[in-house]
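R.M. (postdoc): so does anyone remember the format we settled on? I'll just put the structure tokens first.
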């Protein structure tokens, strides 16, 4: 199998062409310095100097099955040899089998699968389906959420990074979902926070006008915005409000789905069934771009004799679907979802809580499965974030110092504002997690230096 083979000259050539011609997302082009990656396997990747990193990011939280899983690689190769591509209007084995395997695992009656190329377009289509199904225009979504970088998805996103690209499209209204750590002036317990958030949502619905609202969109467990596990009862409460007012309930499981939380879907933790559920990333670990919307029987019925106006040239691409089939089968055969659940409970949760006791820079630890966040703060009492929202340059120095320390210890950390997320592949081993936690421990000592005296 592949192994780090130092080749700095090849790395320099990759980097030079990247600098000259690749326009990178979410970046000021001249202020970034992307690592040239030579290879990857399992939970690790390595650069052209032969330095190896333990990947606590799963790419962008998508390699749930790790890098270069041999069964998934083989399935893509076989599909390429047999039928590399075929237009979406045809019934194709890889596509129908992927849809069947997904529908069998999604909760309730979400049994029809609309395929997209990724998560953002899945969200766009879910919203379109909800608008056509209800005949209503508005969508309610949460602050502190991420739903994708295309136009409607970025409008729906509730992350401050959306400002520059948000068109301010009419019909998107944001509300505050539960987050006790930063809502403590209004609620002291999870129960109070749940009640606050549900009352706030119902008031928002009342003031916007229930008959104008097509959908409420939520990440089951918001990911990019901070891995905020909702209090028990919140999602069931949202389900009730949606039923009461005839609103379509969309759960976005693009990041939380396919084993990430230690269940097939995060919704399984809360016993809720949405009307539409979006997925991408973990469905095939991102080996070939794929996303989709799982659709309830009632909404599928709306489009039974009326055309659904929307689609994409590469919807349900055979290579992507073959990768999904192999991924889902391998996850089942190898107990990957169970691995994420067990190691999350036994290793990551206790390990991160122990780090929080030792490091004053850790303000909060939260998560489930292989889906955790450490919130870094200047002051545990005031909970002032270690860096301000959208910090860049000097203002972001504490997080940059933390990250470069982690990398020097062989750990590639996930960073978002003042947080580091611990989101390794769901196939990670106990030994790898211990290695990563030790590196985090050392890197957090660097973050501690920025804590208010
Ligand atoms: N929805 C959620 C919850 C996500 O986390 C993401 C990406 O991180 C998206 C949607 C957008 O997915 P994509 O980047 O595949 O378009």
């Amino acid at each position: 199998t592949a192994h780090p083979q130092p080749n700095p000259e090849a790395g320099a050539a990759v980097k030079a062409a990247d600098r000259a011609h690749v326009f990178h997302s979410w970046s000021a082009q001249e202020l970034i310095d992307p690592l040239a990656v030579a290879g990857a396997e399992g939970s690790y990747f390595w650069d052209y100097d032969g330095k190896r990193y333990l990947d606590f990011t799963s790419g962008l939280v998508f390699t749930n099955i790790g890098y270069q899983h041999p069964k998934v690689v083989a399935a893509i190769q076989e599909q390429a040899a047999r039928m590399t591509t075929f237009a979406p209007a045809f019934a194709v084995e890889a596509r129908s089998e992927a849809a069947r395997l997904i529908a069998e695992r999604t909760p309730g009656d979400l049994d029809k699968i609309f395929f997209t190329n990724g998560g953002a377009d899945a969200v766009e289509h879910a919203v379109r389906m909800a608008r056509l199904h209800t005949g209503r225009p508005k969508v309610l979504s949460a602050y502190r959420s991420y739903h994708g970088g295309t136009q409607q998805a970025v409008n729906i996103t509730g992350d401050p990074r959306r400002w520059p690209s948000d068109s301010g499209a009419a019909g998107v209204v944001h509300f505050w979902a539960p987050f006790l750590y930063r809502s403590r002036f209004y609620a002291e317990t999870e129960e109070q926070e749940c009640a606050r958030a549900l009352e706030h949502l119902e008031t928002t619905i009342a003031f916007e006008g229930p008959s104008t609202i097509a959908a409420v969109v939520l990440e089951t467990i918001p990911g990019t915005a901070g891995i905020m596990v909702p209090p028990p009862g919140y999602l069931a409460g949202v389900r009730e409000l949606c039923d009461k007012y005839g609103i379509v309930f969309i759960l976005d499981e693009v990041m939380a789905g396919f084993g990430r939380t230690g269940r097939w879907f995060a919704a399984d933790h809360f016993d809720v069934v949405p009307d539409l559920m979006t997925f991408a990333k973990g469905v095939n670990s991102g080996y070939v771009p794929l996303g989709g919307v799982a659709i309830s029987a009632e909404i599928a019925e709306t489009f039974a004799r009326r055309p659904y106006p929307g689609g994409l040239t590469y919807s349900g691409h055979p290579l992507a679907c073959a990768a999904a089939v192999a991924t889902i089968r391998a996850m089942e055969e190898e107990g990957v979802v169970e691995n994420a659940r067990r190691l999350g409970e036994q290793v990551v949760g206790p390990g991160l809580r122990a780090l929080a006791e030792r490091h004053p820079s850790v303000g909060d630890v939260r998560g489930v499965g292989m889906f955790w966040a450490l919130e870094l703060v200047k002051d545990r009492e005031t909970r002032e974030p270690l860096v301000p929202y959208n910090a860049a340059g000097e203002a972001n120095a504490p997080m940059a110092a933390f990250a470069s320390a982690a990398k020097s210890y062989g750990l590639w950390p996930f960073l978002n504002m003042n947080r580091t997320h611990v989101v390794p592949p769901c196939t990670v081993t106990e030994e790898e997690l211990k290695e990563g936690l030790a590196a985090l421990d050392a890197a957090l000592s660097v973050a501690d230096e920025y804590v208010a005296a």
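R.M.: ...and that's the designed sequence above, right after the tokens. Also worth knowing: The two ends are 50 Å apart (CA to CA). The mean pLDDT is 96.
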